[in-house]
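Q: Can I see a sequence and its folded structure?
A: Here is a first one.
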Amino acid sequence: MSEDRQTRRHPQNLQGVLQLAVEAGSAAEGPAPPEPMSEERKTWLREALTELCKGQMDEVEQMKQCLAVLCKEGSERERGGEEEREDDDEDDERETAFEMLSELCENLDNARDLMTLGGLELCVSQYLNHAQSGLRWRAAQLIASCAQNMPQLQFHLLSIGALPKLLQLTDSDPNPTVRVKALYAVSCLVREQEAGLQAFLSHDGFSVLMRGMQSENEKLRTKSAFLLLNLLMSHPEQKDTLVAMGMVQQLVSVLRTPHSPVHEHVLGALCCLVEDFPQGLNDCRNPALGLEELLRQRSKELQGKEESQEELDFCERLRVMCFSRQQSDDTGMDR
């Protein structure tokens, strides 16, 4: 019994209460009791629902307060003396507001309410291009938090032009944290979202990922390659576009950089471009790339390293698809 109490989770909103009620009903054995709910039970349930609704309203009020902070019109910034300190305090206050909103919007109901309150438009129109990098990346992070697994919010963000701004930040922002957070938001808008993918393609999103994989920012390199792999697995019809833009050659050049976590995703992407796609296979077999020897050497380096097993699997699979089959084909031609 004590173990049940420790593992029991209290519902945080009305949706949680309903879920708890469903679970309780499913767990009950035998038919429902014939007697009606007691007045005491009714009172308890009414009070519990009232408290939960009040809590939800309190969170909406917190979001309104945060948005009020973010909506403050700042005067022209003249750096120096007291004005500089006031500006710094204002930035700190706004950063705190963003952090609170991101935490609140982990709740899907709150994320939806933020959209209704105009918070997402504020992020896109004023903060994605803000002069302060700490505010830019926090705005991108909030957009990502709201967009995850929320088609309604994804469509809304796409309709107000969030994606091209996020791609631009990913591609060229001088702050590395902004670039990583912006790419995270891009991922939340395009993965498993057809409208998002089409917008991504229309803004040359694959080129942004290609440049991201060539960046000196290790996190950006890894996350760019991971998103490319994910999109290829979900949308194999994009192979033709990627091979035509020289993606095979670019990926092999990334493999020649000092070993890092990005290589696992790059090898996975190459496997996708080769599988059931002759043009990708021909590109990989091009002797000028020297891919066969590179894969042979990489396999030797990864042998016996448990933490690199998935990368080794991709490496061996790519070798088999590209070069074992080629040897078989050549042997058949000789005969």
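Q: Show me another, different protein.
A: A second, unrelated one:
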Amino acid sequence: MSAAADAAPGGPEAPGPVNSLWVPAAGLAPGPGSPALCWAALLACLSLACAYVGSLYVWNSHLPRDHPAVIKRRFTSVLIVSGLSPLFVWLWKELTGIKPGISLLVLLGFRLEGIVPATLLPLLLTMVLFLGPLIQLSMDCPWDWVDGLKVMFDPRFWALCLSDMRWLRNQVIAPLTEELVFRACMLPMLIPCTGLGPAIFTCPLFFGVAHFHHVIEQLRFRQGSVASIFLSAAFQFSYTAVFGAYTAFIFIRTGHLIGPVLCHSFCNYIGFPAICAALEHPQRLTVVIFYVLGMVLFLLLLHPMTDPAFFGDIPICSLSATSSGFSVCS
């Protein structure tokens, strides 16, 4: 029996998925998808995005963003904002009256059930998508596989990485904080308004727009013409929005934060596929075949490797009060 029925003995269950924990208590929102609920969600997400980006600029510095001193200061401010971001979700729940019936941390993807497949399967799926770039890198790398494994298991290599501020930013801090803020905190606020499917494509818009702040620094340090800077920003918005939709899909399907964080870190390491270099590669045919093979396998494995059955009960799916969520949560 649903929590809605428990809250109102003898009354009909609220419409929505079986065993839904969505309870429209007294608050701003009279029901799912109401204008008040949607405005509350959009304003909360916008405020959270502004707080995250704004935290990068609280420090008065004339140094570029890759300077170690700038990176360390930004670590401090962005970690504070990210640590406080669950409060936005808590405040949103109190204002709207939505009571999921589960703890806030579980709703944000911090749980143990199904954590092993949630750690491995999304990362493996992402590596399949990047099969072409990985083969291309292996062909161009001067090391063989044995040397690569020796380096990977060498503590000195990891000590060197951890001492590199840019590596820490790109592989640890940015993936963790961005996935926490732009996925784990925003999706629970958007889903009761939009439903599961539309939330996957709405959430990345905040993530993509948030990356426009790079334009400020590029103009400030004159890192190209105005036209090239804005063209680059538009391109970055496009692929970050697509990537954001993918990690939002992973977050909803697994109910874990760890998968999106690892996928984000991996993609930051690999970077955007060097398609032009692939077409000019000495072994172009082989590289192109693996590019195509990776995309085909990714599309075939996308649903099987993110099957919610691997990860137990998906907490965030309980927030959807519409039947449109079945295709995502099953």
